[in-house]
Amino acid sequence: MPENALHNLVGTAGEYFVCAEPCRQGYLALLTPKNNPLFDIVVTNPKGTAAISIQVKTRSVNNTQGWKFGGQKNPSDSPGTAFTVLVKLHDGILPVFYVYRYCELTKRVDELFREYISKPKRNGEARKDPGFRWFDDRFFTDDDHARKNNWQPILQVLEESKKTFQ
């Protein structure tokens, strides 16, 4: 199988795993068309009176570098409340999810990047901005670890909006 086809399947698998979680909790989760630059999934409450958007980043079993982020989009460009779910696939067991509000993850990734770019290369030269960012669990803080399989931030937003419209 061509490398890019395998890469697409990894991303698609992550999106389906993420889509399943809100459905298990009684919400409607829908995949958006491929190559949507802002989000991959829209989740609504059963009455459709509130919605959130989720961007999914999936890390394959063989990925040792972490999750890769391209040019960051402004979360205010996304309809509803924006979240990002990082998916870490594993062989033979269910994946692990890390749930972030989009703006919180963007801030965290930018902090790590600023720290990285501020340090010179081994030869003393300044580092150049490669135009993308990596986020690896080697650099997880206690806050990052606390997000593991914690869907409460998403469910809480949907529950609060459900009460508003009852």
Q: What can you tell me about this protein's structure?
A:
With 166 residues, the protein is an alpha+beta fold. The chain has a single domain, classed as Trna Endonuclease, Chain: A, domain 1. It is 34% helix and 22% strand. The protein contains four helices and seven strands; from the N terminus they run αββββββαβαα. The longest helix is centred in the N-terminal third of the chain and has 22 residues. It is globular, with a radius of gyration of 17 Å.
* pLDDT averaged over residues: 86
CATH architecture: 3-Layer(aba) Sandwich
Whole-number tally of structural domains: 1
Look at the structure and give the CATH class: Alpha Beta
- The CATH topology annotation reads as Trna Endonuclease, Chain: A, domain 1
Please compute the radius of gyration using only Cα atoms: 17 Å
Characterize the biggest β-sheet: 5 strands, mixed
Q: Low-confidence segments, ≥5 residues, pLDDT <50?
A: none
H/E series, N to C? HEEEEEEHEHH
Q: For the terminal residues, how far apart are their CA atoms? A: 50 Å
Strand order of the largest sheet: 1-2-3-5-6
Query: What global shape is seen?
Result: globular
List its salient traits.
alpha+beta, 34% helix, 166 residues, Trna Endonuclease, Chain: A, domain 1, 7 strands, single chain
List the helices and strands and how they pair.
Layout: H1 3-24, E1 28-31, E2 41-44, E3 51-59, E4 67-69, E5 81-88, E6 96-101, H2 102-118, E7 133-135, H3 142-146, H4 152-164
Parallel strand pairs: 3-5
Antiparallel strand pairs: 1-2, 2-3, 4-7, 5-6
Q: Brief overview, please?
A:
With 166 residues, the chain is an alpha+beta fold. Helices cover 34% and strands 22% of the residues.
